[in-house]
């Protein structure tokens, strides 16, 4: 059962191969097994690749199965259409387009499996890229809110500086009227004279202005600080909203790019392995000598070709002979006197009838 299945996979003519030797059958069983297991590897690779895209096992398995059938059909077609000839160069020339196609298939198959094999290393590369993207994202969002935050900070700083300056002014006036009362400065007269009263009045006025400025500025500072907190909240919210996008940066293309950043030699040899697997049926058929199956197949093809060419020649000869016979028959008929007189009589009657009809039409128009 398994032998018959692999022969089916090889694309060989089963009735023709059944009449061949056991060794010849074994060769095509090996070719068919290679074709089958290449399709199995294609299913595994494509299912994993599509799973990274859809993140769902059902469509991944479904599309992976379809892809493996496509690869199986292509490989079977490639192997079954190669014909063994007497010249290796002509055989290789015939197989060149199929080898190129096999190389493309091998690269497509190997890439998803490379991603799976080097998954841990790829995750490390992706983690570094995600961290860098998170920092850049935070920096960009911070730059977006920076102007508003800096404006609020500068306004708060200016309002606080205004309060501090006014406090310094009040403290200076306080020291002035105290020293005036003590007689250590100003008029240097001990006691609370007119100058003292003038200076304390000026201090009290400045103190009232300080209270007003402090009240107004603290209210403005509270509003600005609230606005700053709102901006900071919006900044953090924006960073939080964009973080899932960065966390989801692990799709197929991201993993392929991460794989390309790893050392290329291991990946290259894995690709060579799949290339060897994919091209092995073709190489095996090119390198193997012409066997019993090839001779029988050539015999059938040449016999069919000879039969078709013979039938074609006979049909062409039949057409030529029939045409010659008809030409001779009609030539003999053309020389028959009775047929000539009959044809002349009929033609004369037809011309007379046409002339009479034309005359009737002309008379009706008058």
TrEMBL record:
InterPro entries: DUF4407 (IPR025519)
UniProt entry keywords in alphabetical sequence: Coiled coil, Membrane, Transmembrane, Transmembrane helix
Coiled-coil ranges per UniProt: 149-176
Domain of life: Bacteria
Xref: Pfam families: DUF4407
Segments crossing the lipid bilayer: 28-51, 57-74, 95-113, 264-287
UniProt protein name: DUF4407 domain-containing protein
């Amino acid at each position: 059962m398994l032998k018959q299945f692999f022969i089916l996979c090889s694309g060989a003519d089963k009735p023709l191969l059944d009449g061949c030797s056991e060794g010849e059958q074994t060769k095509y069983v090996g070719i068919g097994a290679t074709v089958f297991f290449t399709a199995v590897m294609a299913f595994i690779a494509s299912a994993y690749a599509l799973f990274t895209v859809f993140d769902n096992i059902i469509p991944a398995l479904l599309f992976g199965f379809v892809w493996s059938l496509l690869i199986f059909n292509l490989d079977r077609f490639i192997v079954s259409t190669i014909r063994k000839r007497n010249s290796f160069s002509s055989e290789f020339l015939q197989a060149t387009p199929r080898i190129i196609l096999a190389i493309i298939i091998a690269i497509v198959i190997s890439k998803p499996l490379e991603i799976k094999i080097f998954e841990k290393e790829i995750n490390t590369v992706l983690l570094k890229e995600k961290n860098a993207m998170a920092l850049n994202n935070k920096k960009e969002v911070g730059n977006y809110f920076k102007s508003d935050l800096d404006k609020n900070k500068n306004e708060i700083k200016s309002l606080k500086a205004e309060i501090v300056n006014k406090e310094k002014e009040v403290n200076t006036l306080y020291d002035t009227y105290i020293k005036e009362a003590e007689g250590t400065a100003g008029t240097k007269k001990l006691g609370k004279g007119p100058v003292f009263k003038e200076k304390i009045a000026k201090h009290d006025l400045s103190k009232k202005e300080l209270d007003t400025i402090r009240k107004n500025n603290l209210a403005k500072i509270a509003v600005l600080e609230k606005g700053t907190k709102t901006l900071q909240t919006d900044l953090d919210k924006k960073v939080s909203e964009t973080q899932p996008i960065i966390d989801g940066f692990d799709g197929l293309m991201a993993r392929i790019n991460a794989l390309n950043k790893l050392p290329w030699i291991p990946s290259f040899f894995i690709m060579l392995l799949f290339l060897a697997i994919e091209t092995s049926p073709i190489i095996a058929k090119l390198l193997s000598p012409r066997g019993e199956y090839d001779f029988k197949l050539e015999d059938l093809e040449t016999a069919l070709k000879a039969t078709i060419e013979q039938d074609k020649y006979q049909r062409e000869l039949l057409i030529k002979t029939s045409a010659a016979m008809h030409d001779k028959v009609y030539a003999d008929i053309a020389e028959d006197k009775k047929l000539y007189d009959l044809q002349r009589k009929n033609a004369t009657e037809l011309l007379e009838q046409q002339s009479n009809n034309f005359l009737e039409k002309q008379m009706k128009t008058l």
